[in-house]
Design a protein that fits this description.
The structure is a single chain. The protein has about 280 residues and is an alpha/beta fold. The chain has a single domain, classed as Purple Acid Phosphatase, chain A, domain 2. The protein has helices at about 20-35, 55-65, 75-80, 95-105, 135-150, 185-195, 270-275; strands spanning about 5-10, 40, 70-75, 110-115, 120-125, 155-160, 195-205, 210-215, 215-220, 225-230, 245-250, 255-260, 265-270. The N and C termini lie far apart (about 40 Å). The structure holds fe (ii) ion (2 copies). One fe (ii) ion binds next to loops. One fe (ii) ion (FE2) binds near residues 45, 77 and 78.
Length: about 280
Amino acid sequence: MSEFRLTQISDTHTSRRLTKLTDNFHRLSEYIDTSRPDLVINSGDITFDGLTSPGDFDFAKSLHDALPVACRYLPGNHDIGDNQTQIGPMPSQRVGEGDRQAFVSVFGDDRWRFEAAGWCFIGLNSVVMNSGLASEAEQFDWLARELAAASGKPTALFLHKPLYLNAPDDPELKATSIRYVPQPARRRLIELFRAADLRLVASGHVHQHRDFTFARVRHIWAPSAGFIISGARQELIGIKEVGLVEYRFRPDSFEVRHVKAPGQIAIDLDGLLKDQDVSARG
Ligand SMILES: [Fe+2]
Ligand SMILES: [Fe+2]
């Protein structure tokens, strides 16, 4: 295959009771039905709150199963709980092994590697980092082996949380686990990728589009497919919009398009909460 077309969707946050988010997912599905990429990756926060509404997992899976394209999945903090951190507040719902396993039983492996069009694609569970769970250490060991097997191919990394704001050594206060891969796991991750030809880091989580390059690695923040977060709740870093990201990989090059599916509506989280009388963590 000399070309590989991949669509990244993220932060779909679907739930049976949040019909506006389901509507946005359907608009996305219709667009994917016309664009027919080779693969769809959902980079996490697949469910609105799979932790407290386990039925959301099956509902979300049924929506993805209806897509005409194969899917791979990564967990987000709303699916299996959040990172622990050395600085900043502890998350109210820390990631746990039982929740991770529940995710895997519905969506498949929470980490994966495959190759296409001369590229190596790696998906990682970013919310397990700094957890101290056995699966965190296992993932790092697995990653070292998989990167060795990639033997220098151009590599694209997918994960829920962005690696960092602007640079690996952003000041610690900006580096809390709330928004980025927390230290010291981030340092270890970046060190492991020094042995690889990393070209792209694709993440979700922030519910904002962003596209920047640091040290020849391009960082793409996918927007949420479902909703935006108001200025009162979250600073503006990139662009607050809903949508998806399309990639076209060819040996030694790639192209990125930020797309909003026809009919996808930028629902504001505040309006969503008011409508539905549900509570959410940012
Ligand atoms: Fe999210
Ligand atoms: Fe998230």
